[in-house]
Amino acid sequence: MCITGMSEQWVVARIKQKGDSKCIPWKNLRDLILAHPDVKKRVDIFSLSIYGLVIFPKALGHVDEAISDLFDRLDKGVTPVPTILAETFRSLNVCQRTGEGRFIGCAQLLLVWFYSHF
């Protein structure tokens, strides 16, 4: 609600259950980007969409609710590095446990973190 500037009813009506996560469809966010009266909110929603669809993709065409919480914290100056590492570890762990699958996360961000720490 804070990021979109929309009412709680608007947000609740659009949240969908995808697997074990609650997500909002990209289509709804796209519509907000195109029609929101506040330009700053448009940019925030666009950034949230990119972050959710590219950096932490969980459900195709949807942005995870947890990403919107993380994004809201970023606006308050909280660093995303622990979250990126935790999400990377979770994804790699799932791939190893099942013996198949693919890494879900942003390999480029992980590479940047490795280069800056080792």
Automatic annotation (TrEMBL):
Domain of life according to the entry: Eukaryota
Boundaries of every DUF7745 domain copy: 33-117
InterPro entries: DUF7745
Pfam families tied to this protein: DUF7745
Protein name: DUF7745 domain-containing protein
Source organism per UniProt: Gossypium trilobum
